[in-house]
Amino acid sequence: MTTTPKPLLPTKLPDWYTVEDPTTEKGWTPKTKHFKEPAVENAWEKTAPPASKRYTIRVTDLQIISPVQVGGGSFPEGHILPARIAGVPCIPGSSVRGVLLNWLKDNWNEISDPKEQEFWESLIARTEGWHWRPREIRFENVPLTQLKPYPLHPQQNWQLYGEDSSDNQRNQTNRTLASQWQAAPKHPEPEGTQPEAIARVQHSENPVFQISLKKPASGDQKNWLEKRLKQMLEQHGIGRGTSSGFGRLAVSVPQTGTWTIELTGMKPYEGGQPRQYRWTPQVLRATLRGYFTRLALPLLGKPNAERLTNILFGGISSRNNQKCCIAELSLTSFLSKIRSSSESHTTNYTNIPTEVAHETWIISVNHQVNFKGKSCPVEQQNTVAELLKPLIENLLSLASRVGGLGPGWRRHPHKMKKIGKNGETLYLYRGSKFTVNPASSQPIANLIQELNEIIKKLAIAHNVPLNATPTIPGQLISIWQGEREKWRLLVHGVCSSDAPNRSQRPWCGNSKTRPSGYAVREYDDCCWITVFDSGVVDTLNEQGFNQIWPLSTS
Fold first, then answer.
1. Cβ pair 269, 353 in contact under 8 A
2. Are 403 and 519 in contact, with CB atoms under 8 Å apart?
3. Nearest Cα to 453, choosing from 391, 400, 402?
4. In whole angstroms, how large is the CA radius of gyration of the chain?
5. For 479-520, how does the pLDDT look when each residue is reduced to its tens digit (9 = 90+)?
6. SS3 state at 361
7. What's the burial of 25, exposed, middle or buried (CB within 10 Å: 0-12/13-18/19+)?
8. From CA 17, how far away is CA 149, in angstroms rounded?
9. Which of 527, 508, 509, 357 is nearest to 428 (CA)?
10. 264: exposed, middle or buried (Cβ count in 10 Å: 0-12, 13-18, 19+)
11. What are 197-207's pLDDT values in tens digits?
12. CA distance 312 to 318
């Protein structure tokens, strides 16, 4: 009797490395329910081992204020699971150790007290390559609770350039389903009374950080240790994606920032039932990154526009073959407050709780510039740094004038009626809008011109050649104006699902294979249509819209 020998190595990935049926079209937004989360959680221990009772400082008053990311990657290739100690997910003490060392190195000049400098030099060999002295300091692991996999929505070619994702079936990298395991911040309690049934994201308990010194520490030394740890966690963060605004911890959520956003309408959420509504810094980063690329395309050409975008907003290619200094632009944004609507809304929407649709999210925004590891003239660093603040402010102003933020950003907030499968009347809610303060008040043509000049200066500073290029799909082509609700003729008329000859207008977009080639914004006395696909122009002319940008110079 012969037996089949068992393979020496596994031939199949464990469940926690896969998603359910990854080949099936998921639409534009990957859903959390596609991840085999229970398979992972069942393999984890639920109770962390007791923390050491011997420590120099123990910090317990920090809360997560932007999602902390540990582990993650792309499907179906597989991804990295979070670090675990005794089977419990955690931030390794070695990670805290390394990040704090690098942060102290970058901010050494901010430590002005000679006694504090002397204290840190007793722990760090500054003149020997910047490393911790052996056996002088110990960082404990930091257990994490309520760790969940969340889909990532990185900007991909089919989103920006209006490509049909169904054409990319042979190239799955264009539709990669990616995730990150995150410990989420607590959602602010809305002002006013709201039904308890509304699902808010499950947040993690306050992490506990413990640091032990070999030698006894004075009161001042303990205070310095705790102070710098807290500054590092709030200003730099820990985990993956810190340059995108993830991984921040602080005693409380910042209530103010350089800019303040007020967002109404559809809100960022994660899939599954019920939906979990939450803010993530990736939403803002993707918005500004997208508008930057759209403006840069006709000025630099596609390859150079993508290169400069990656330099400023991050990307794998931004670190390859770059001889000039690279400015890493770090955007942080925090949901600091939720304001309930003062008006009464009686319509029940099928796709979002009415209270969430009409509440206003107050978001604080800041930015940092990091030239770490880049050897370039100080004058060049100063030039880039001075351009980035007006760049962000003007991009925020542009984005708020022509569209929304997050899901459905191409549509103005509105409700729409739909007949259900059983003939019942259903109401859906679509679109979002936001304001930003402070914001540029100049006319839209002047605003775009100023942004173009900033982009050109940034390109020159980073040795990215200017290369004026004819119309490229995805660029900001034109802006049109019509009567206040005339946009409905386009959205619910020409581009309605049952409109005749709709298949001949691919720029209308659909929920599964490509986004629409235009965005809508309604004002008190007019509406704007912003065009990203030249195919929209003929229809706008036919419908009687007037082009307000760019204006003919003839």
1. no
2. yes
3. 391
4. 25
5. 999 999 999 999 999 998 888 888 889 899 887 678 899 999
6. strand
7. exposed
8. 11
9. 357
10. buried
11. 455 556 668 89
12. 8
Tell me the β-bridge partners of 69. 182
Question: What contacts 488, CB < 8 A, 6 or more positions away?
Answer: none
How would you classify residue 408: left for phi > 0, otherwise alpha for psi between -120 and 50, otherwise beta?
A: left
Per residue, what are the HEC states of 57-93? EEECCCEECCCEEEEEEEECCEEECCCEECCEEEECH
Separation of alpha carbons 305 and 282, rounded Å = 20
Measured CA to CA, the distance from residue 476 to residue 529 in angstroms comes to 11
Exposure on the CB side of residue 346, measured as CA atoms within 13 A: 0
Is residue 202 a contact partner of residue 270, using CB atoms and an 8 Å limit?
Answer: no
**pTM recorded for the entire structure:** 0.87
* Range of lowest pLDDT (243-257, 271-285, 492-506): 271-285
pLDDT for residue 345: 87
What are 316-329's pLDDT values in tens digits? 443 344 444 444 78
Long-range contacts of 7-10 (CB under 8 A, 24+ apart): none
* pLDDT of amino acid 447: 97
280 token code pair = 């993530």
Is pLDDT above 50 for 315?
Answer: yes
The residue assigned the tokens 């539709």 is: 175
CA distance 337 to 356: 13
For residues 148 and 181, the answer to whether their CB atoms sit within 8 Å is: yes
What is the CB neighbour count within 10 angstroms for residue 95? 17
In this structure, are residues 462 and 149 in contact, taking their beta carbons and an 8 Å threshold?
no
Separation of alpha carbons 480 and 518, rounded Å: 10
d(CA 62, CA 250): 5
In the numeric block, which tokens belong to residue 165?
């994702």
User: What are 19's strand-pairing partners?
Assistant: 35
Question: Which residue's entry shows tokens 């582990």?
Answer: 71
What's the pLDDT tens digit per position in 57-79? 999 999 999 999 887 555 444 55
As a whole number of angstroms, the distance between CA 364 and CA 358 comes to 19
Q: Long-range pairs for 294-297 at CB < 8 Å and ≥24 separation? A: 294/160, 294/474, 294/475, 294/476, 294/532, 295/448, 295/451, 295/452, 295/455, 295/475, 295/476, 296/455, 296/459, 297/469, 297/472, 297/474, 297/475
From its phi and psi, is residue 479 left (phi > 0), alpha (psi between -120 and 50) or beta? Answer: beta
CA distance 512 to 31: 14
Confidence band for 250, pLDDT divided at 50, 70 and 90: very high
Evaluate whether 428 touches 418 at the Cβ level (below 8 Å).
yes
